[in-house]
Amino acid sequence: MDTKINLLDLSLDELRGFIAELREPRFRAEQVWQWMWQKGVSDFEEMSNVSKALRGKLAEHAVIRPPTIDTVRESDDGTVKFLLRLADGALIETVLLPSRTHYTQCLSTQVGCAMGCAFCSTGTMGLARNLAHSEICGQVLLGRKWLEQKNSQDKGERSLRNLVFMGMGEPLMNYDTLVKSLHTLRDDKAFGFSSRRMTVSTAGVPGRMTELVTSGLARLAVSLHAPTQELRERIMPRAARMHPLPALMEELKKLPLRPQERTTFEYILIGGLNDTQQHARELVRLLSHVRAKINLIACNPAKDSPFAAPTMEAIEAFQQVLRDKGLVAMLRKSKGQDIEAACGQLVTQKQKEQARTEQADA
Ligand code: SF4
């Protein structure tokens, strides 16, 4: 068994401690940190300003091991989905979403998810485990490297600018590692992302939303998807029971937002289930005491999902009700439909393929 420590799992402070144990000066930790995260180097021999003696000690006691790419799928609309394999064989997804000027990367925080949202492929898997710091920040290492290669081939200049924690898992159920990762992603000697360009999307974990907003490390988005507790229990059963809608809204009302800042609410419109004008009016009432911005997303049902996509008429009528009441409501296009880009679709498809192969081989 490999007992070497994966340096990508350490915070900068922890790396300083590790370097001190090797009886090396403190500044060496910053050098190694920059090689790993800023330059994306995983071979100690490439760390040219690090002494030969330290490179030898590092090779003896440590490794730099990001996740590996299992599959890459590119959509006609430019969306790129990666299936990543972790050291224990588990699979996770990360997605690069293009816009005219830049890319946004959607990140996973858990293998599977305990929340069991009915419209989500990841929800059908259950929770296997939390992701480690190396596995969360490693997704960004791989996404950024892939884009650099693509940009040099295409002579393009669209860089990775935004991060959204909306992939597999409930980020606030892996809170400590999420916070540690946000510090690394924000660090100028690592990735240098602005806190304003990192958004954590949650189904609502009591107390954690307030902690995250207070930390100022990232923006908050709340996956709401229903305007009443009863409907939310049908669509997002565990999340709705963990933080019932009245208590959730109470916590959101008291968030220490900056002036002008709004909480983003995600609302997936599911055909015939939560997309009527009556639902829109209930949503207006629910959000009347919070500074809200609403992202409407048309459901992109997986192949065997019982849910339907909403009609364009229903979407427009729903959006109009919100706008008539002065709410900011944007329709977000579902990207990468031809490559199963919605959360968890590619992993569940791969798991089914693997199960079929194992059966065929048995
Ligand atoms: S939508 Fe998010 S919280 Fe709900 S099951 Fe999927 S990954 Fe988990």
Features:
362 residues; alpha/beta; DNA polymerase, domain 1; TIM Barrel; ten-stranded mixed beta sheet; two-stranded parallel ribbon; 12 helices; 21% strand; binds iron/sulfur cluster; methyltransferase; metal-binding; rSAM_sf; Methyltransferase_A
Structural category: alpha/beta
Give the overall average pLDDT: 92
CATH architecture of the largest domain: Alpha-Beta Barrel
Bound molecules: iron/sulfur cluster
Using the CA coordinates, give the radius of gyration.
Answer: 22 Å
Give the name of the CATH superfamily of the largest domain.
Aldolase class I
Work out the helicity level: 25-40%
Q: What's the end-to-end separation, in Å?
A: 28 Å
**H-E string:** EHHHEEEEEEEHEHEHEHHHEHEHEH
Can you tell me the CATH topology of the largest domain? TIM Barrel
Silhouette: globular
User: At the first level of CATH, what is the class of the largest domain?
Assistant: Alpha Beta
- Count of strand segments: 14
pLDDT < 50 runs, ≥5 residues: none
Number of helices: 12
The largest sheet, given as strand count, sense and whether it forms a barrel, is: 10 strands, mixed
Number of domains: 2
Proportion of residues in β-strands: 15-25%
